[in-house]
Design a protein that fits this description.
single chain, 303 residues, alpha/beta, Immunoglobulin-like, Aminopeptidase, 6-stranded mixed sheet, N-acetylmuramoyl-L-alanine amidase, N-acetylmuramoyl_amidase_3
């Protein structure tokens, strides 16, 4: 049997992002850090699988690149944040070499944060309807449920404004953030356009701190799901803020995750995998936002 690498994939849980390399038999390896947050594995076996760049974007591991190198194999892992790691070799058929990257950095960034996730529409307000009859109110509730789990896995707390198919006014939705002294309020919607082939995601910020968050989230949706960005736009919630007696000093944003009026993207919205990946991409953007804030505070402290 030829000695070589047959498969590479990533498993993610709350504590670790684990890259698993499977081979026909044990392979000698060398590990080095080639750049900031980039690790390279040199393996002495050939490449039985096809060379590939695998997009992961699980919040810690961005990409895994697998290529042939001098009769052996080179596997490069690009991380979003610094991480410690541990190696584990599991003998068997196939043989497995695992590298477990610790997600502690993300938990430190998100510690003590409270995120309010608002599922748009509900009850008699169905929102927009796709060409194949998919209802926005149902889709966004599913994505919000995935988001709650993803946010909790970062070490933060998450609260949904609605967990059932009920009607809620804007005042009631916003009031949750004020009552719980939240750090962020994010409303999940889909985009709609009269032009049938129009596609992509858009973001609206209702308070100035939300503008940067919107940009990060659209970038992450583009990376993980290849969604076209329809841009970041400002939309005032001043009447809503006045009604609950609060100032908009935290991010209040609406994310239109993709275009339900596009038959292709409506089809994607029927997939639980797509909805789970959408939730992960939005969560990645939230972590990036708080990480950038932390670096900005550090700069000001040491100026």
């Amino acid at each position: 049997m030829k000695r070589g690498l047959t498969n590479v994939y990533v498993k993610t849980d709350a504590d670790f992002s684990t890259m698993i390399m499977e081979s026909t038999m044990p392979l000698s390896h060398a590990l080095r850090r080639s750049a900031r947050n980039v690790y390279e594995f040199s393996l002495d076996g050939g490449l039985i699988m096809a060379p590939d760049t695998i997009n992961i974007y699980d919040g810690l591991i961005n990409t895994v690149k697998v290529a042939e190198q001098n009769g052996g194999t080179l596997v490069s892992v690009a991380l979003q944040y610094p991480s410690s790691y541990r190696l584990k070799q599991i003998r068997g058929i196939p043989d497995r070499l695992e590298i477990c990257f610790d997600r502690a950095y993300i938990k430190n960034v998100m510690r003590d944060k409270l995120v309010i996730i608002d599922s748009g529409h509900g009850g008699g307000d169905i929102g927009r309807r796709g060409y194949i009859n998919l209802l926005e109110k149902n889709v966004v509730m599913h994505i919000s449920g995935f988001m709650k789990s993803k946010i909790i896995n970062t070490g933060a707390r998450a609260v949904l404004t609605r967990e059932k198919d009920i009607s809620m006014g804007l005042k009631d939705r916003l009031e949750v953030a004020g009552l719980l002294e939240a750090d962020l309020w994010i409303s999940i919607h889909t985009r709609w356009d009269r032009v049938k082939n129009s596609c992509g995601a858009a973001a609206l910020y209702h308070s100035k701190p939300g503008e940067l968050l919107c940009r990060f989230i659209l970038e992450e949706l583009g990376k993980k799901l290849k969604l076209e960005s329809k841009g970041v736009h400002e939309e005032s919630f001043s009447k809503g803020f006045d009604a609950i007696g609060t100032t908009a000093n935290i991010p209040f944003v609406t994310i239109e995750v993709c275009t339900i009026s596009n038959p292709v993207e409506e089809g994607w919205l029927r997939s639980p995998v797509f909805k789970e990946r959408t939730a992960q991409a939005i969560t990645n953007g939230i972590v990036r936002y708080y990480d950038s804030n932390r670096h900005e505070r550090d700069k000001n402290i040491f100026r």
